[in-house]
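Tokens for chain A. Residues wanted.
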């Protein structure tokens, strides 16, 4: 048995950073005993592209895992949700998510082999209020860390990389002092997690035929 692992993200992602971590990943595999290592040789490749579209040939993938990613919208627009937003804004976001999620499911259903399995991990919340920021606390804590840096006159030019660290470099640039930012972020998370718990949803789907 051999394992072929495909990593997917948008083409704008910094795949070079990902490649730099592969030697550490392969080194970690050497910790497995010799018998298992011979049984499960593992190979890694990247697949740039939007997961709202087809990424793989028909009936070619046995297992898919999307970790905290399928909540991103393909077309967000320029209107942001807040507690004062009219119901039409919430409805538009819901319809966009439903459309995007169906595109995601249809594409993956064609790519998976019969009997294949897909596991989705998503942010969740206890409240039915669509304006609740309960599920967005990690982003708010990161935002707070950025504002702390700005308030102390630490220059932050061009920022926004992909999924926290990656999310931030693409948008804010390499001048962002990441060590300082994530030190503040870790402190914010520590203070917050002492008071509240995050909600995550785990969804498992299996293709019958």
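Reply:
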């Amino acid at each position: 048995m051999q394992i072929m692992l495909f990593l997917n993200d948008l083409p704008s992602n910094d795949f070079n950073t990902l490649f730099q971590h592969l030697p550490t990943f392969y080194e970690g595999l050497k910790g497995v005993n010799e018998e298992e290592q011979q049984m499960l040789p593992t190979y890694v490749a990247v697949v740039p592209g939007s997961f709202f579209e087809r990424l793989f040939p028909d009936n070619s993938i046995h297992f898919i895992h999307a970790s905290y990613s399928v909540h991103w919208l393909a077309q967000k627009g320029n209107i942001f949700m807040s507690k004062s937003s009219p119901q039409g804004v919430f409805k538009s976001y819901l319809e966009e998510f439903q459309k995007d999620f169906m595109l995601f499911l249809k594409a993956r259903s064609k790519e998976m082999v019969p009997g294949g399995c897909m596991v989705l991990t998503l942010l969740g919340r206890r409240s039915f209020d669509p304006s609740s920021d309960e599920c967005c606390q990690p982003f708010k804590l990161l935002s707070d860390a950025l504002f702390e840096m700005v308030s102390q006159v630490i220059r932050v030019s061009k920022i926004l990389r992909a999924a926290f660290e990656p999310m931030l470099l693409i948008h804010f640039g390499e001048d962002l002092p990441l060590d300082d930012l994530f030190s503040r972020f870790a402190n914010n998370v520590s203070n917050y997690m002492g008071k509240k718990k995050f909600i995550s949803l785990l969804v498992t789907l299996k293709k019958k035929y």
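The longest helix spans residues 87-111. Residues 152-163 have pLDDT under 50 and may be disordered.
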